[in-house]
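Hey,
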Amino acid sequence: MKSKWFIMCFLITIFVFCLFSGVITAQNIKITGDKSLDALLKSDNLVTVILKNSGAQDVNLKLIEVHPEYLVFESEKEERVTYKLDQISEIIIQKEKREKTSVQIMPGITLRTEDRMTVERAWVRVEEIYKSSESNQDLKVECAVLLTLHNSQEASEYLQKLLDANEISTQLVSARGIYLTGGQVPTALLRSGLEHGNRAVRIQSTILSGLVGYRDGIPSLMNMLQDRSGEISGPAARALAMLGVREIIPKLLEMLSSQNEDKSESAVYAFVELGGEDIKEQLRQIIPNLQGMAQYRAIKALFFMKDPNGKALLSQIFEDQVTLRPEIALLLAREQEWKAQQFLRTRLTRRENPTDSNFIYRARAITALYEGGDPTVLPQYQELMREGSPVVRKEVCKLIFILGDKNLLKILPSLIENREPEVAFEACRAAIGVTLPEYRKRYIRLKGEL
């Protein structure tokens, strides 16, 4: 009997110890700077609060209240800021006031304190990457675009310096960046680019001509539309559609049946860009006479044009064409089509070879399900971040950027600190993009996303 009593008392003691050993008290909070909480409470010291998990920093705070489960601080604007004890990793006593990055928030966009700090850190990190990217011009330009939007004179001058260079390819890299900032692209540069002998230069000039509305380039673009190479005719079709040139519709109908993917996918984009009941009617008429991929692309164009027939026909192909099912599921799942969503959920539970292509498809599936109203898939983004290569991590960040959803900011802090500059930049862009919707729209048009 005594032994049973002893064992029971021992177990109760262990239980109580385990229960209270995990409890965080105010006095357990790590403080860097040689003061206790009591001393801080009685002082005018400014402090930085570092949050767990994200590592986000809230600077220039004053401790004003200590409670059993939380601390209350006062911000520079004399607002109360409350943090639960289990949110705080560390409190650092500042020697002086720290400069705080101002976050540009568009009207109607509000951020939680932790999300705001993620965006603030993203701005600082972009500047760090910009300053260390002398050997990677494309990355430096991408950083300069964001910093220009953040009113950096140095970054703006860097873009102008490239625009004034002698090499037209360098000028076009800068012009693309200037377009993303919402600035004016010189028409003389576009004219020279469209007439240039270098194919890469003509392609870049073609895309920019459409984006900025360079109508004087239409004759050159019409000639390029006739080129047998999809590398040339595809961008020309997209640019002409952006310029509203409806005379290209017969050529687009022809391009739908091309074996060249650049041509046929550009025709889909151009149809959607031009829009109109006349195009919908022509597509509806030719679909029964088309086969295979040509038929699929015509239906996809109708789908993106929000024609009811498009969704119904796409659902039918999803049922009939096994090889197209993975791609179609991504489109229909966003529209809350149950069978498509179930297909993607099943695919996500399947064990697959850990290749970049498989991981990227999983990322696209997660995105489609989330867009279709299923937030339970979000933790799988973080699994991809842990298991995927830098290529996969960049792709996940790009998908998050395109979504522009502030609820996804909590996924990004660790990637913002990634050692790979290009991964870190994509994470920063995804965070910052939430606060810059116009920049995000311009980027999506530049990439030709539907």
